[in-house]
Amino acid sequence: MKILTEHIDVPNIETIDVFMKHGGYQAVTKALKNMSPDEVTEEVKKSGLRGRGGAGFPVGMKWSFLAKPEGVPRYLVCNADESEPGTFKDHYLMAKSPHTLIEGMIVSSFALGANTSYIYVRGELMYVIHILEKAIQEAYDKGFLGKNILGSGYDLDLYVQPGGGAYICGEETALLESLEGKRGNPRNKPPFPAVKGLWQCPTVVNNVESISATSWIVNNGGDAYAAIGEGRSTGTKLISVSGHVKKPGVYEIPLGITVEDFIFSEEWCGGIRDGHKLKAVIAGGSSVPILPAELILTTANGEKRRMTYESLSDGGFATGTMLGSGGFIVMDETTCIVHNTLTFASFYHHESCGQCSPCREGTGWMDKVLHRIESGEGRKEDVDLLVDVAKKIEGNTICPLGDAASWPVAAAIRHFRDEFEWHIEHPELATKPGAVYMRPGASWSN
Amino acid sequence: MEAKTQVAFPAETLELVKRIIARYPEGKQKSALLPILHLAQAEWRWCSPEVMDYVASLLNIQPVEVYEVATFYTMFHLEPVGEHVIEYCRTGPCCLMGGVEVYDHLKKRLGIETGETTADGKFTIKEVECLAACGWGPVFQIREKYYMHLTKEKVDQIIDELGK
């Protein structure tokens, strides 16, 4: 079952004519001619679609919070700042099929009563911005954007905004600050963007994948979408796979397949690269807890873990993780968990906006201490020190970057403490090029 | 605020600047700052104080409003750079795919470290965070182009081609 990527490999699908030949823009016609904005919102609510940027908050509910004072413009802003390490699904979708997002933007803007909408794309993806701008021009030329779209009386202008290279701008209030031409410092909430967002006007910020799914929901109905998937994890999800599998890339999966099937079957990742064994997975982008092979495949209760919001988080952080953005990073037995954790700690240190002391200072401390351990100068007390610093960042910052920075370090130590200790106790072994600790008896050990 | 410099966009780019400012409501022209800084960097390679002052004058904002933004976002070069700026991704997934070895080779090949420019002014190397291309790593970017699935051999080819 493919909703977003069914036609993604059709030659020239990035052009509006080919896109329309494959059913494109039917949702715009249907929504604007036959439905009211509230009816569109109602279908999205029924679909159970959850925010695909990582938080998993129900999209229809987020829309229903939008304040609608008379005479004040409302905005829809698409979050295409995709910067969470391991995540490259929006990049793939926008580059290959830009009209999928544009069609979703029109339908969603109509539902929200927005007459101007923006797609905020990370600045590094300038080539994708050019692709989107070309596609938007085509949509204007066909009358799907601009004044009085398809004679419905509804007006919409759509623009693309580049970022400047800052992970923090994926946080919705930082994104809005950035779109206002400022530093990307997250805002205190409340007020939430639904009440005071872009230029203090009511604003909805949604991820690329969430918005793109709305046209299918308009065409087929919310119930049809909710029929795919499992429980509260409805529909399909784009999973971007990196690391040591045979076939890295972006896959659209129906939520509910088993993790084992996803990693090992030929239909998806094709298994671990030749001759190697699965050691660990980060299932939802670098900020979610890493799990060792046995816990990513099977929950603590002995059930097969499935690709859903609920199953991946089964066991809480003690034995579970999160679906997050769907950035699925697979590691085989050649991976040094300490080094891998260090790269992420450096990332969050670099990307902290510096506004809140626990995050600004704490990410620096974790980076520094991990660097010390990795380079063979770790001290006995360093592992507990890392846990302590992570704990003191978590929950003590304006935005979730603090949590995102502390979780990967805390989880790596939770599940691979022996590997950190080995680095500290045996620096002469650990600092040899390519050295990796092998846990005696582990499924990935030789 | 009057522009105190000779820095100026060509007429065609100035037209584009006008169109960008028109994307936002009246009085919200500051929103055009990031798009225009990108245009400025494409024109002058880096954001010198003169360039930033010029951008401020175009948007009718204070120079400090440009400085605080340009220093926040890592894509903007605040020092002179070479003709080709190679920005390699040093984050986890690219490292898993052998990124460290490939980037070491790149530095050795050019004889410079991260943050430096070759003596002939051709290349600058910069280390950046995740470029959202993790499944196609190791990755680096030169201006708008992504170079993916990098190997030492591929790096040599790219340098040979651009170094001509």
TrEMBL record, chain A:
Recorded catalytic activity of this chain's protein: a quinone + NADH + 5 H(+)(in) = a quinol + NAD(+) + 4 H(+)(out)
GO MF annotation: an example: FMN binding
UniProt-listed Enzyme Commission number(s): 7.1.1.-
Cross-referenced Pfam families: Complex1_51K, NADH_4Fe-4S, SLBB_2
Keywords from the UniProt entry: 4Fe-4S, Flavoprotein, FMN, Iron, Iron-sulfur, Metal-binding, NAD, Oxidoreductase, Quinone, Translocase
Class in the EC hierarchy, top level: translocase
Required cofactor(s): [4Fe-4S] cluster; FMN
InterPro entries reported in the protein's UniProt record: NADH-UbQ_OxRdtase_51kDa_CS (IPR001949), NADH-UbQ_OxRdtase_suF (IPR011537), Nuo51_FMN-bd (IPR011538), Nuo51_FMN-bd_sf (IPR037225), Nuop51_4Fe4S-bd (IPR019575), Nuop51_4Fe4S-bd_sf (IPR037207), SLBB_dom (IPR054765)
NADH-ubiquinone oxidoreductase 51kDa subunit iron-sulphur binding domain residues: 338-383
Entry-linked Gene3D superfamilies: 3.10.20.600, 6.10.250.1450, NADH-ubiquinone oxidoreductase 51kDa subunit, NADH-ubiquinone oxidoreductase 51kDa subunit, iron-sulphur binding domain
NCBIfam families referenced in this protein's UniProt entry, alphabetically: nuoF_fam, PRK13596.1
Protein family membership: Belongs to the complex I 51 kDa subunit family.
Role description: NDH-1 shuttles electrons from NADH, via FMN and iron-sulfur (Fe-S) centers, to quinones in the respiratory chain.
Protein name, UniProt field: NADH-quinone oxidoreductase subunit F
Origin organism lineage: Bacteria, Pseudomonadati, Bacteroidota, Cytophagia, Cytophagales
Gene this protein is translated from: nuoF
From TrEMBL, chain B:
Keyword Iron attached: yes
Database matches in PROSITE patterns: COMPLEX1_24K (PS01099)
Cofactor: how bound: Binds 1 [2Fe-2S] cluster.
Cofactor: [2Fe-2S] cluster
InterPro entries to which the protein is assigned, alphabetical: NuoE-like, NuoE_dom, NuoE_N, Thioredoxin-like_sf
Gene Ontology terms, MF aspect: 2 iron, 2 sulfur cluster binding; metal ion binding; NADH dehydrogenase activity
Alphabetic keyword roster: 2Fe-2S, Iron, Iron-sulfur, Metal-binding
Matching SUPFAM superfamilies: Thioredoxin-like (SSF52833)
NCBIfam families according to UniProt: nuoE_fam
Protein family (similarity comment): Belongs to the complex I 24 kDa subunit family.
UniProt name for this protein: NAD(P)H-dependent oxidoreductase subunit E
Organism: Sandaracinomonas limnophila
